[in-house]
Design brief:
Layout (H helix, E strand, L loop, with lengths): L1 H31 L22 H17 L4 H13 L3 H14 L4 H13 L3 H11 L7 H13 L3 H14 L4 H13 L3 H12 L6 H13 L3 H8 L5 H15 L2 H16 L1
Helix pairs in contact: 1-3, 1-5, 1-7, 1-9, 2-3, 3-4, 3-5, 4-5, 5-6, 6-7, 7-8, 7-9, 8-9, 9-10, 9-11, 10-11, 11-12, 11-13
């Protein structure tokens, strides 16, 4: 029974790590993609990042972007945005189907391959995701986002040493990048080393370009060590009241799973005394 709980916890935490890793790729796509001159019409603009949307905002965005996708399912940026929204609403199978269509239309596009890998991982196809993300990487022009995403998948496959190697390769290309530091920290959470995890997450949160997702991971790791008041203060930082309450509720629900947390704490204590 204990092994089953540990596996369930590792999977849950790894999904959180992975979704953050690939979110940086999706954000990069959104800012660098160019309008295809052969496509008529335009993609509805989003008022805020997908990760910051409320449930009702996500539903409205899915409706708008979904209509644009129906009109032109081969359009790269529409497909990337729609798949990202679908995954945020838990519709992973549909997101994967969307990205399959976009990948068929854009078989050599690095952004598309990266997002396709994200969709495969969200749908539980980890080995396929690793292969897809590896294909998107090119030795002559390596992308730190892809190294970070590859590391996140490797973490989910239990290959932590390889995963951390990829994160460090990403940091060689993009020093002090908060999303990579955060993923590296969460990798140590998966192996039960909470003190090392906190060190990396604190470094990530102190970077000028860090965002609320980094701070939520830091709050979680601090909470796992029993410093609940400190964790809640971090979870509420720089957010509007509705988002802050949602984050605190999520944090409390995670910390309520006492058996998993006790297992982690015991493993962390063993690591520090050995």
């Amino acid at each position: 029974m204990g092994a089953r709980k540990t596996t369930s916890h590792r999977t849950m935490m790894a999904v959180r790590v992975f979704m953050f890793a690939l979110a940086t790729i999706t954000a990069g796509c959104a800012t660098t993609a160019k309008k295809d001159p052969t496509v008529t019409g335009s993609i509805p603009k989003l008022t805020k990042p997908v990760e910051a949307m409320t449930t009702s905002e996500l539903a409205a965005a899915a409706e708008r972007i979904g209509s644009a996708y129906d009109r032109n399912p081969k359009d790269k940026q529409t497909g990337l945005t729609y798949a990202s929204i679908l995954m945020m609403t838990g519709r992973d199978t549909q997101a994967l189907a969307v990205m399959q269509q976009v990948a068929i239309a854009n078989p050599a596009d690095r952004d598309v391959l990266a997002a396709y890998g994200k969709a495969q991982a969200a749908a539980g196809q980890m080995e396929q995701a690793l292969s897809t993300i590896s294909r998107a990487q090119t030795p002559d022009r390596p992308d730190w986002r892809l190294y970070s995403a590859e590391g996140a998948v490797l973490d989910q496959l239990g290959r932590s040493s390889e995963a951390r190697n990829r994160y460090r390769m990403a940091l060689d290309l993009k020093p002090n990048e908060p999303s990579v530091l955060s993923n590296l920290g969460m990798s140590y959470v998966l192996s039960g080393d909470l003190r090392t995890a906190e060190t990396y997450l604190k470094s990530a949160s102190q970077q000028p370009t860090s965002d609320s997702r980094v701070r939520q991971n830091l709050a979680l790791v601090i909470g796992l060590q029993g410093r609940f008041d400190e964790a809640e203060r971090i979870a509420r930082q720089e957010l509007d009241p509705q988002q802050a309450e949602a984050n605190v509720a999520y944090l409390r629900s995670m910390l309520a799973q006492q058996n998993s947390w006790k297992q982690l704490a015991a493993k962390d204590a063993d690591t520090q005394t050995n």
